[in-house]
Amino acid sequence: MNTEEFRRHAHAFVDWMAEYLDRVETYPVRAQTKPGEIAARLPASPPDHGEPIERIFTDFTRDLLPGITHWQHPSFFAYFPANSSPPSVLAEMLTATLGAQCMLWQTSPAATELETRVLDWLRQMLGLPEGFAGVIQDSASSAILCAILTARERATGWRVNEEGLGAVERLTVYCSTETHSSTEKDVKVAGLGRRNLRKVAVDDAFAMRADALEAAIREDLAAGARPICVVATLGTTGVGAMDPLRALGQVCRRHGVWLHVDAAWAGSALVLPEHRGMLDGIELVDSFVVNPHKWLFTNFDCSAHFVRDPEALVRTLAILPEYLKTREQSQVIDYRDWSVQLGRRFRALKLWFVIRAYGVDGLRRMVAAHIDLAREVEAWIGAAPDFELMALRSLALLNFRYRPQGVGDPAELDRLNERLLEALNDSGELYLTQNRVRGTFAIRLAIGQTATRRHHVEAAWKKIQETARALG
Q1: How many Cα atoms occupy the beta-carbon half-sphere of 319 within 13 Å?
Q2: Is the pLDDT of residue 203 over 90?
Q3: Which end of the chain is less enclosed by CB atoms within 10 A, N or C?
Q4: Which domains does the chain show, CATH number per domain?
């Protein structure tokens, strides 16, 4: 394809992209296909000869688009948002065109220096104190892995990197029973073993209990283990619980344990000064992650990982074969040493576009609007005699269930709400996810898509009530 053909197709694609954003509401939110249906439309073997772009694009819209769940649909209320925005999409187009691999300063100086600057902008926007240095990871899961690896090496004098886990005593990591499953996965990836992850009890607000953490650490010390890392959460996936950073940080300081904070979703709300109370104790935190790709209108993937001691992170992950040496390496940051992967995309560009296009005030208004909408839904649920909240609202996240009169059996209520959730998602009009709150089935609603407005939330609540009462 020559550049003139590229220009013609690119114009057509951009026209389609703009139309898609205008009419995304016309699609079913969740893909309505059955397992194997999309694969059955695809040839079993690759083509021997090149095909025209027009034909490929036709197949994309005909064969693939029906199997897409539309995360940018304003009635997407499932999981946590993975919202995007037009400025971010434009930046991604530039990133793809440049095709830069930004592992070293030398391989793209602008990418490195922009990442350093834009991460410090974000630090200021979130109210994080000076002393944190930032790097963009692909996901919060990777940031947690980096934290566990760095904690492992610091606790063992960097022996595991050299000699392996067999050279040291048993190492233990701590999180709450509400913590995201990525921590458990990362413990396995780090070679520590799932049995060495301690899931600490939570209080009535689902927050990790500092006294239970203290007890778990003391128990492991008595058994000859070495506690290395606590993963606290601001905004747990299930109910949006906020772990008490100060109390947990004091426990960590007493025992020399690394404290990492996963604020992947809720961290975006820190752009609003009124929510910065959740940062109480931040001075005791070693590392912190927030995902602009969740609730700051920046395309996936873009996870902002802040560390107090970048030298420890670099010492844990750095490797320097001859072919990666450069004459500038003593004067610059080479971000390949700040993450597990050596290769790096130019992720900072889209975050820079978003912050500049909306400004801090614009981003604050957008996040605040989502929280206000969730507050309204909370009131609607509270006023409905046959619905109930299963946990306190957390920012823009709610858990609720349908509880009609005459249905008191817990198992029957669980089945009824599971049927309700399936019926809602099968309708294509909205998309919600399930949860269990203290063992009870709940329907989970998270507001945060870029284009979501009050009428979308009103329509969702109306659909929920109508569907529930038809089932009930």
Answers
A1: 9
A2: yes
A3: N
A4: 1-30+69-85+359-472 (3.90.1150.170), 100-345 (3.40.640.10)
